[in-house]
């Protein structure tokens, strides 16, 4: 603004203006979260085999995946916060393939148990399945509780 129009504005005003323009362009966080169910529906319609409700998975685990599953979580920043849980596997072309996502307000044993229990419900039996995760204590505790016959390693 200073260079182009010789107008001096405060950084906070410029930031507010940017946030306003972004909300006009992309919508607000609230509007975006309201669209998630329809986004899930479109994903299911356009990508056969995609499931957006892990508790009702009828397709099972894809057999083209290696039986090594990576489990992790990340803390979400911003207005809504919380934790996003992720399960991925490696497919036949050595690429990582996302299998499941989940969201919770906290990362603790109860939320990990909910997520991994939902994930377990979507699996058919897989021989010699191995889980890989970081050293988070909740992941270690819950994997041994939910999946009794798997190997769990840390990276």
Overview of this structure, please?
With 155 residues, the chain is of the alpha/beta class. The protein is 39% helix and 24% strand. It contains 6 helices and 5 strands. A 5-stranded mixed beta sheet has the order 3-2-1-4-5, with helices on one face. β4 (130-133), α6 (137-146) and β5 (151-154) form a beta-alpha-beta unit. The longest helix has 16 residues, at 11-26. It is elongated. Residues 54-62 have low confidence and may be disordered. It comes from Dipteronia dyeriana. This is MULE transposase domain-containing protein. InterPro entries: MULE_transposase_dom. Residues 69-155 form the MULE transposase domain.
Brief overview:
This protein has 155 residues and is an alpha/beta fold. The chain has helices spanning 2-5, 11-26, 29-34, 36-46, 109-121, 137-146; strands at 65-75, 83-91, 96-104, 130-133, 151-154.
């Amino acid at each position: 603004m200073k260079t182009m129009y010789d107008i001096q504005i405060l950084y906070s005003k410029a930031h507010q203006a940017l946030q306003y323009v972004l909300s006009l362009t992309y919508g607000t966080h609230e509007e975006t979260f309201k669209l998630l169910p329809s986004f899930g529906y479109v994903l299911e319609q356009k990508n056969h085999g995609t499931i957006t409700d892990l508790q009702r998975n009828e397709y099972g685990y894809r057999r083209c995946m290696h039986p090594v599953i990576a489990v992790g979580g990340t803390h979400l920043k911003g207005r809504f916060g919380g934790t996003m849980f992720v399960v991925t596997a490696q497919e036949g072309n050595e690429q990582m393939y996302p299998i499941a996502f989940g969201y919770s307000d906290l990362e603790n044993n109860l939320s990990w148990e909910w997520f991994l229990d939902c994930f377990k419900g979507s699996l058919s039996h897989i021989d010699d399945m191995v889980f890989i995760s970081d050293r988070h204590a909740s992941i270690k505790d819950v994997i041994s509780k939910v999946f009794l016959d798997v190997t769990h390693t840390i990276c």
